[in-house]
Amino acid sequence: MTLDPKEANKRSPFEARLNALEKRLHSPLRKPVLRFSRQDSPLIHAGIEFFSGVVVSMLLGVAFDRYQSTHPWGLLTGFLLGLGAGFWNVFRLIKR
Amino acid sequence: MAQQPLHQFEIHPLIPLSMGGVDVSFTNAALAMVMSGTLVVLLFFWGTRQQKLIPSRLQAIAELGYKVVATLVNENIGNQGYAFFPFVFSIFFFVLGGNIFGMFPYAFTFTSHLIATFGLAVLVITVVTIVGLVKNGTRFLRTFVPAGVPWPVLLLLTPIELISYCSRPFSLAVRLFANMMAGHTMLKVFAGFSTSLGALYGVFPMGLNVILTGFELLIAVLQAYVFSVLTCVYLHDAVHVGH
Question: Which terminus, N or C, of chain B has the lesser number of Cβ atoms within 10 Å?
Fold first, then answer.
């Protein structure tokens, strides 16, 4: 659309309508349709990231305990490593 | 029975099947998967049947869907990402189809089951790991050994990185499952308020439910989007090791 809008308006009502629609499409007031910026904040995921790190690590620890009969040490190690992994997950999420 | 908010998540076999002692019945969840998958395929079949310059509504939906996933893949993985476009596209539309299909009354939401979302998440992580190993070989293992870290810290950091990697499918699955399950339970709880408050006061929870249904639709699309964004992020990590 390199045509001058006023020139185009003179040409045909169709071009005028097209110009008006084009203007509306690019106007700054129009919000982008598929942008979830507010809902897609990384902080929403932080809780789940932390939780999953701890849970997965503890489950691994418990499984280790069961097969090696080292109860409670696998659980404890798993829990501590899981805390680390959870914090690491959150840290990476914020950094992204 | 109608007032139990969790009753909607019950799975019951429609066609009982057994394979080598394992129950592989065709359940209502499987039916929902087949139906939502079929709906997605039909949408794209009808949407791309007549390729007009000025698109019809279905064609516009199909094109929009293509464009959303294409930008997603390009922005998150880069130009190499188009190789994974079919994968991300299928994941996105399978999850989106399941979420939206579940919004219809009497329909079953298969994404509100942890095992379904966990299956999807494990598929994603398996693909990511295979892609990482094929593209980078043993260099992929460097993901667990960050560069420029002194070795005493590395002793602690490597197990943490490993666990963090293993927690990915879990967090991916729980995020989708929790959102869908919580939303549908909440809708049912407010519907229960409506029925127990009677015709006069029951209108208020119903009005709230109308708003919440709209909100649920947003969540349905958003969670499918988030699921595929994270798929792309993980694929990016697998393709570009050491960034």
Answer: N
